[in-house]
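User: quick one, fold this
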Amino acid sequence: MTPFSPRLLKGGIVQLDPHTAQVLRVIALQYNPDTVTRTLRAQAAGADGGDRSAALRLKGVAVETIRVEAELDATDRLERPGANADTVAFGLHPQLAALESLVQPRAADLQTNENLAASGVLEILPAEAPLTLFVWSRQRVVPVRVTELTVTEEAFDAALNPIRARVGLGLRVLSVDDLGFGHRGGTLFMSHLRSKEALAARAGSAALSALGPQVV
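Assistant:
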């Protein structure tokens, strides 16, 4: 990379304490995926067709899901074993374990709940997970729930540690409908929504004549 090359930003996942905003973990993708697939499903008030007066109304923000396919490869680090002792010993296990922690409760939380149940506590609330953000440039920082994690391990070292893998992440964007306006994640979502509206304004509007005569 020359001194004049642009800095390559990485996409990834950030976990925050939802109360203090303290950064708990940053997971940067080793290689930025070539594709990010997003699906937005409108929440239309008149979706069932029963109320004509609601046909043009939206009852909430669109439900957005994101699919990311990422690659992990330990080959470069294995070429410098002296500087990458963990990779030599464990391959990609640490990186995969960090991703898997996004969909698993902590062992300590499970044990705490088990101890409470054994002591006779009738109502045990599930442990609150960190606030998870999907970061893909300044224009896309959104609170998400990781709904699916698929790991395909493709190559192994002599100790059967994975050294090359493909990871599929399924994410659901959490909106104010999920978190509320007072939640830190809800605030981040509203900032994201306003940013989208500002970007849409930059696109402008084409002339109606571009769509042909007598459109309306």
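User: anything notable?
Assistant: The CA atoms of residues 72 and 149 lie 14 Å apart.
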